[in-house]
Queue: 2 jobs
Job 1
Amino acid sequence: MKIFNTLTRKKEEFKPLEEGKVRMYSCGPTVYNYFHIGNARPFIMFDLLRRYLEYRGYEVRFVQNFTDIDDKVIKKANEEGTTYDKIADKYIAEYFIDAKGLGIKEATVHPKATENIDEIIDIVKTLEDKGLAYAAEGDVYFRTKSFKDYGKLSHQPLEDLEAGARIDVREHKENPMDFALWKAAKPGEPSWESPWGQGRPGWHIECSAMARRYLGETIDIHSGGVDLCFPHHENEIAQSEGANGKPFANYWMHNAFLNVDNQKMSKSLGNFFTVRDAAAVYGYEAIRFFMISAHYRTPVNYSRESLEQAKASLARINASLANLAFLSDKGAEGEMTEKESASAAAFDGFKQRFCDAMDDDLNSADAVSVIFELVKEANTVSAEKDVTKAYCKAALEMLTELCGVLGIGQTESEEDSLDKEIDELIAQRQAARKAKNFAEADRIRDDLKARGIILEDTPQGVKWSRA
Ligand code: AMP
Ligand code: ZN
């Protein structure tokens, strides 16, 4: 597999440190609100990467943190007259509800910053001992001038960065590019004991600490949105490599931004959407499908039209899955026809092209196109009146496998139980018809119609779909 590495600005062959194993860290949400559709992009795309690596046989250890202490969390707690940890716990629970809806698997570990204060203090102490950090008035700052590689991820020399930077009057920095590792406690704010007095960690240091604690000093892949490249990831590199004296991450991956109606999403423009709100309109699966339909390094535009389109495209895939499942049960017995055999023989070719696309820096846009070609092929062949179960099963298996890698096409459990109820009603209707109780049969059909379920009599039996 090839991965575009922000560090080298090249597509590189992916080689993990340890054969067959991948250590991967992705920056997670600051938990002071429901997460928005922009945040959903990295969460979905790096979940996709993880799923694909697992599909290719890697054992993936995936860490995604929760930033549970920072200015925004504290502000929200003050506004609501509660504590920072209550706010964090609430929005962590909400994160898992939306993530599950979006088909994002739980990470191997979801650590919280405040659970890692000891590890954080340990790194800051090491940096101070090495002369890479200095304490000032209870704050501790990273001394960027002493870290020779500063700027290597964002490809900007320190001098250029310094030119545009200012020091805030409340800070005690030697140089405008220095950044806080530890912040002295302010009255009324949560704080922890440290060698520099009561205080709390800066934002950047938490990821260096959690990556080291849960994955080790050098990891394979580090990822996040492109806005994190500078300064957040640049600072993570400085802290981790400064303290550990080893490369931090071998591959850096950054997703491009999601805009709304061709504008940057912001609360003041009134174009800010949480995943919770968007899911109420389009459904979670359509949001996931919208994201994976674009390559992660291409900017995407979120709009009503693009989401409606994603929903309709996804419905085509799901209809094909449902149709093949139906015919796997109701189709003709016996061996595949010649035409079916020829079609089934081509399935591996679809899979190969799907993998080729994903191997090319996770080109899920092309992988989705391959799925549509497979859907078209399977739909055409299975439209034959006496299509065999054997063919439909083979097509279903391949389509399910590839959709599974993308995390789509899985009927949710809630729908599953609904499906069973519908099947039962259809069976009751068939029984009523057999007994020539047409009034009852019609009543059941109308009942289902009122619930948006359309029945269709086909040569293989009754088929249903959602209107
Ligand atoms: P935050 O909670 O703001 O730290 O963001 C969590 C993740 O969402 C980070 O990886 C950000 O880079 C990413 N992110 C934030 N806004 C957007 C956006 N509009 N498009 C794509 N990614 C975003
Ligand atoms: Zn981070």
Job 2
Amino acid sequence: MTFADLHLHTRFSDGTYEPAEVVWHARRHQLAALSLTDHDTIEGCAPTAAACASAGIEFIPGTELTAEQDGDEIHILGYCLDTRDPKLLVEIAKFQAVRQDRIREMVARINRLRVPLSVDAVFALANCRAPGRPHVARALVKAGLCRNLDEAFERFLRKDRPAWVPKFKMSAAVAIQLIHSAGGLAVLAHPGLNRTDAVIPAIVEAGLDGIECYHSKHGPSETTQYLEMAALHGLLITGGSDCHGSNKGRPLIGTVKLPYPFVEQLKAKAAERGAATCTPSTPIFS
Ligand code: AMP
Ligand code: FE
Ligand code: FE
Ligand code: ZN
């Protein structure tokens, strides 16, 4: 049996690994395929695809869009999308501009507390188009203004702390349409983490293609529950570790291994829709 990990982050959003490091770990865990699903960006896809090609690992282009349904935050994974699609690039650029404005606002609020963090220091450290709170936290530590990341979140960044700024979320229906218009498939990320099962029928109605049933933070009963839900609605089944690198203790890559037939099903559906980027191919490991 061969396996895949369809939920991975790099330093192009809030992960710590470079693409080559993710691919190195994927090889170590003998993964035949992987998808990069950085938050609100596709910036890391090209370098990760290149690293996968040298390592003999199949690369599935991906992203994880921050979305909202009936007031609840949900994450929608996009797979097999054309990362050069002009509409996708325009919409993602808008999303990223809002994330960058949010960083400026967080830093301004921190400065109002007479903590001299520079916004340029945060952007320099983030060095990506989709920066978030972890980059502000790391910059605070790097500048010697907080002892560690926990302190940064506790003093400033956690919800309802003085520098907390809500994050822009597109509606789930818009996120799904955007993924579809770029030739991709839309999958609900880690429903067990969000505990927002009540919104699932509405997003299925909006065109959801799959559910991430296997996830590092899903227990066996959650996995079973979402497998049943996927069967009930006729949705694809996906899974991944949601590894963010080494910033949250032990890296999670390798803890969720999705059997390759699920990847075949994903690619078959993408091909049915006419996606050019995810043509079925034979995995290297067998
Ligand atoms: P953002 O998308 O900018 O709101 O940032 C969310 C990211 O911040 C996620 O990757 C979380 O894991 C991380 N995060 C949230 N709370 C904490 C915390 N208390 N300590 C460390 N990281 C956190
Ligand atoms: Fe994240
Ligand atoms: Fe997520
Ligand atoms: Zn994720």
